[in-house]
Amino acid sequence: MAMMIPYGQRITPDDRTTTSRGLMRPRPGGRALRVAVATVLALWFALPLVPLLLWAVANRWSFPAPLPTAWGVDGLVTALEQGAAPAFGRSLLLGLAVAAIATPLGALAARALTRGIVPAPRLVSALLLAPLALPAFVAVMGLTVLLLRARVPATLAVLLLLVAAALPYTVYTMRVAYAAHDLAYEEEARTLGASRLAVLVRVHLPLVAPGLARAAFLAFLVGWSDYVVTVLVGGGSLVTLPLLVGSYAAGVGNEAIVAVLSLGAIVPPLVLLLALGRFGRRYPTARFTGPTPSRSPKGSP
Amino acid sequence: MLTTPLPGADARARQRASRERWVGLAMVAPALAVAGVVVVGGIGMSVVQSVGLLPLVGEARFTLDAYVANGDELLTGLALSLGIATASTLLSSVIGLAAAVIITQGRITGRLVAGLSAVTIPVPHLVGAAAVGLLVADSGLLPRWFGVEPGAWPDLVGGPWWVAVVLEYTWKESAFIALVVAGVLATRVARYDETAALLGASRARRLRHIVIPLATPAVIVSAIIVFVYTFGSYEVAWLLGRPYPEPLPVLAFRLFNSITLTSRPEAAAVAVITTVVSLLAVAVGMALLRRTPLWR
Q1: Using an 8 Å Cβ cutoff, are B173 and B165 in contact?
Q2: Cβ of A119 under 8 Å from any chain B Cβ?
């Protein structure tokens, strides 16, 4: 059973296929029901973001008013004064560092696992997926004693814990990518005289690039959105964007600042997501090819 | 024609296989080391601390005091965490499955729902909590739009039923389940659905006999992930919950940061109990998964 996390890919069918399926064409009753359900779902997903958008541009919004009573960017100004920019930078660095470490580690492990050259493959994949089943705070509370005694710097400890948390995603995404990857291309290139390095750079990596991009995006998200690990291990020395959001959201009367910081935490992943979608279209191998079944890795996801 | 292998080919093949195993081991070693240290080390050291073998000061002595010290809070916290995780998992599975079906039906509505759920996923949980707070608190957007006085608005944030917490989890995780299940439906189910339609199955029957059975394994796998996450997650319950009773992660957090010397082992005890329940939940989920006819 293979499951993809279909990021940056179109999963709705093409217009061409849907209109040509005469049998599947909706009838008026079913159509009305579908539109109604879709509207409710669209509202469900969009509604929580509305107060963020409104509060971010509200200087004053006294209670019963349905819309801000004074518009403006005071929230943004205060947020910048309170160190939003450096926190944003630290979050970005943390996310990129987690992605830069967890993606190659996951890709290496996934390649070995899909080639079937790993001893005790079930145990190994279970261990690599185990961070998903372990609450983050447990790992932190257990390991802080060790890390403190070994004098590991807080930032490094945060990085270690977040890389472990990101590994299940990168390993799994890359397993799906390698399962659809044909080793024959690499063998062909070797036969034709390409060096190992040339095969890696010009054949292997370009073929799995969309998978790598997806894996890196998920790993980035782990570092970017973490709160618990940074707060517990960093102990307030590493102030990231989520930490600022947390401290302002816990107080009263900071709605505008919270909204601005929150939007700041949502926008970068969205930009990456869009970039990922464009990237996926440029490399047609990454696309969902509609109803054709893809080869998939066996075993637990 | 040469059909018999050359002498020594067998030995060479064996040698090559053993070399490949070493290469394989070397390739998984870095990832395995990181995951192993964090998982085995995290659980192991939590257990060691919780039974008093690693005190901050004083003599190491085996004791189960840490598990008994907060007995009542542990039990209420366990019940509360189980309740929140169960409610969030069930609701997000139902909403996520519905969204996945709509998404794979295609057309404009499907694309709209796909786009909005994709926007929801990268939102950090803490930001989601802040957003849900601004939406449903008694001074939030909904009471403003519906013209309800703060006194008449139910206690959704910090109330006795933890509604805002469950809402936030359900919002985020239903998007996650929708995307995972839609991926499976798009690649695997489309053909069967078409075949059944060709054979004259009605829309309702196709949903009942094709789409839902084929989506079940994906729903179960993602529901396991959602349950374990919501059971062991701290920040949402901390921000949108009430001070007492505390879910297990919030309780562990408070004990961990407390200045009393005995509280570190007590926090570790809460962590151990959370881990045991999480692992049990995974085991139950995997057992359910094996009983679905499509699982290989």
Answers
A1: no
A2: yes
